[in-house]
Amino acid sequence: MDATKGKVDQGMQNPGGQMDKPVGYHFMESMLPKVVKRRVHALKRLQVQCANIEAKFYEEVHELERKYAALYQPLFEKRRDIVTGTVEPTDEECEWHSDREEEEELAEEIKEKAVIEDSKKEEATPQEDAKGIPEFWLTIFKSVDMLSDMLQEHDEPILKHLKDIQVKFSEPGQPMSFTLEFHFEPNGYFNNAVLTKVYKMKSEPDASDPFSFEGPEIIDCEGCQIDWHKGKDVTVKTIKKKQKHKGRGTVRTITKQVPNDSFFNFFNPVKVSPDGEMDEDSEFTLATDFEIGHFFRERIVPRAVLYFTGEALEDDESFEEEELEEGDEEEQDEEGDDDDDEGDFDPKKEQPQPAECKQQ
């Protein structure tokens, strides 16, 4: 449900039929007759009750997600075992049928790319029989723009050891949340077998602004401590600086560690300020973090193989292009209307506003 703050959808209409400037809803209410305003207040009380029922609905949806997550889990475990090479799927399990034309086109493109890649690999080092699906998760990270933006070259050797990503939902009776678990095989970078990121959620109307409620939203997140091997922490880098003594004029070289760009900073997120006051950069960083966490949960983990093959990327791109085309058409229609109604254009008329986005 959309909630419009500070403005009504349309301006008040005057007796002559022309639209005045849009006015604030407080002013609009103040212009209503007292008996009408009283009834509007009754409707608002009903609206708050609707918001509370909607909150209960989303709580039950969360419980339903948790229930079905247990049903998905055996399938995701089988996916992990195939990816890591722990099990080899049977011929029957490998049978797959799809649209012949699309498959042949895709196969030809893949073959061409594979020939090029294989020749490069063979020139570099002789390849043994591949185990499982090599670099499954790393390929996904590099293919998805939202993730590749965080990925640095020094992260890639580490992510080759990523075995699985799982989503765990909070238990009944606990505050609403979900946890992303990144499972790693033993490696030479850190001791952790699992890295976690907890996203805390809220699914209740705000007492001070109940009409803004649009469903569950992420309100905070918490990472974990990575137990790095000595000299392997990619989230910091060592720099050397020269210092000159003011009195003697002698120069000495010191070394110190400074933050370094890395995907693994994902596990050390910006914390929400207790008083809610944050600078613009921190707010943007946190909002982006929430969006990434939601994307892992809703898209990457459930549809991993389709992001690996690129099919999910094509779906995402098609959806974005469709939205863009619709937007272009609307803009063209507006321009066309302006031409048709030349001389009747009212500059005071409010243009449609985009819906507010919220992480859920």
TrEMBL record:
Report the protein name in the record.
Nucleosome assembly protein 1-like 4a isoform X2
**Ranges of biased composition (kind: Acidic residues):** 312-344
Q: Where in the cell is it found?
A: Nucleus
Primary location class: nucleus
One GO BP annotation is: nucleosome assembly
Return the similarity comment. Answer: Belongs to the nucleosome assembly protein (NAP) family.
Q: Which parts of this chain are annotated as the region Disordered? A: 1-20, 312-360
Query: Does the record's keyword annotation contain Hydrolase?
Result: no
Identify the Gene3D superfamilies for this entry. Answer: 1.20.5.1500, Nucleosome assembly protein (3.30.1120.90)
Q: Which GO terms describe its cellular component?
A: nucleus
Q: Which UniProt keywords apply?
A: Nucleus
